[in-house]
Write a structure and sequence with these properties.
alpha/beta; five-stranded parallel sheet; 21 strands; 31% helix; elongated
């Protein structure tokens, strides 16, 4: 069989394979493999198809060397060699094909897909998969999940998918195993919401499919590698209010006065933060967490970093987070700006309490904000309002102030009166031209 040239250069064939070996390949895929002069694959896959690889063909193991694969292919193509990459299942479903296409260009590769192992697992159980969320933790050892972990944790994206979907099919890894996934669900209070099935060693003689496993049981069960996990909800998710939660939704500190940004002020502050679904948000002086937690609900693809110096309030934030089923929220106990250097650059910053470090926090926020990002601050005293506006003026920021005063109806005898809340000043700012020029000068000097 002749391979089609591409501008004089041989295309790299990415073949989807399964663990039943040659039986999983069609005639074209098998011919490409047998004619290849360079075969790239994982250790197990190269061993599985060793008999079909030409004796004089070079073999490259990509295990632990993924970043080198594009250069291997590029060099072989430049030498006019025929290249095959072996990938499990469908190489375009959480597989290597998209990675190669982004680095070599689409015209440099040709994908010959197979059935995804996720599809196979669904087929074994008779589960339709068109409305399933396909997810993957097929990466480095993530370690067990810890509540409040940031997006750097290897299980973070999976937990986000679990929060937002009713049925999932998950590609695991030798490290990120079914029992580790189950322990994460237990830690997040989701153990009673899901059941699990695990398909082990698909298309091998030792194939086994275990279904209807409780999450609590799966948390301590060993499963043979490779495997695929299926999750489905045992009870429907309750519809959630998207915006404007009442103050009573949040636990607050008692008998001391609760540190909460009231509903009306919170709504305006969140609106002025100009949040997007993927925004990274800082919540400085979190109090009971109302602003940061509501921001996390709005930024479902983003993340909120919060800091609060009071230990009792930190415990309340954690309980509020658990009660609301929020995972994209990281809380630190401390006094800002300590620890903020390790946070991702924000799209929006909210300052509800400054601990006496207001000027430093404003300068830091404006310096770290992404282009177009907003800093929003709440004040109830004239002194803090003056300190904030003076600092913003000195930094050359663009800013404005809104005074917000709400009055709520309260019963009096058989009638109602209006009781005024304390006025709050909402200060909104962006880095101005002068600040941007200073940043550019520092960058050039560095």
């Amino acid at each position: 069989m002749k391979a089609e040239p591409m501008n004089g250069m041989e295309k790299c064939r990415v073949l989807g394979v399964l663990d039943d070996g040659v039986r999983s390949l069609g005639q074209d895929a098998l011919a490409h493999l047998r004619q290849a002069q360079l075969v790239v694959g994982a250790t197990r896959t190269l061993q599985l198809f060793a008999a079909q690889i030409a004796p004089d063909a070079r073999r490259r193991d990509l295990s632990g060397a993924m970043s080198l694969v594009p250069e291997w292919i590029r060099a072989a193509q430049a030498a006019g060699e025929r290249v095959v990459v072996l990938a499990t299942g469908d190489p375009l479903c959480h597989g290597i094909a998209a990675y190669l296409a982004s680095r070599l260009c689409l015209e440099a590769i040709e994908v010959l897909p197979n059935v995804s192992t996720l599809q196979l697992a669904c087929a074994r159980l008779g589960l339709p998969w068109q409305d399933m969320k396909f997810s993957s933790v097929h990466g480095k050892d993530a370690g067990d999940w810890v509540a409040g972990s940031d997006p750097g944790h290897g299980l973070y994206a999976l937990l986000r998918d679990i929060r937002q979907n009713d049925r999932l099919a998950i590609l695991t890894s030798p490290f990120n195993t079914p029992d580790r996934i189950a322990r994460m669900l237990v830690a997040e209070g989701l153990a009673d919401d899901f059941e699990m099935a695990v398909a082990e060693r698909l298309c091998q003689p030792e194939e086994r499919v275990t279904s209807g496993v409780s999450i609590a049981a799966a948390a301590s069960l060993p499963f043979a590698d490779p495997n695929v996990v299926l999750l489905w909800r045992t009870r429907l998710r309750a519809p959630q209010v998207l915006f404007g939660l009442p103050d009573a939704s949040f636990e607050q500190r008692h008998p001391d006065k609760g540190l909460i940004t009231k509903n009306e002020v919170r709504a305006v502050s969140l609106a002025r933060l100009q949040l997007r679904a993927d925004s990274v948000v800082w919540d400085i002086g979190a109090g009971c967490g109302s602003v940061g937690l509501e921001a996390a609900r709005l930024c479902r693809q983003g993340h909120v970093y919060a800091i609060e110096k009071n230990a009792q309030d930190c415990a309340i934030v954690q309980r509020n987070r658990a009660a609301m089923g929020i995972s994209n929220h990281t809380l630190a106990q401390g006094k800002a700006p300590e620890g903020l250097a390790a946070w991702a650059d924000p799209d929006a910053v909210f300052i509800g309490g400054s601990g006496g470090e207001l000027a430093e926090l404003i300068a830091l926020a404006l310096r770290r904000l992404k282009p177009g990002g907003w800093l929003v601050m709440n004040f109830v005293t004239l002194e803090n309002l003056a300190a904030a506006t003076q600092t913003l003026q000195a930094l050359g920021a663009s800013w404005d102030v809104l005074q917000l005063q709400a009055a709520r109806s309260k019963p009096i005898l058989q009638m109602h009166r209006m009781a005024a809340e304390n006025p709050v000043w909402i200060v909104c700012a962006q880095a101005g031209r002068a600040q941007e020029n200073q940043d550019e000068e520092r960058a050039w000097a560095a």
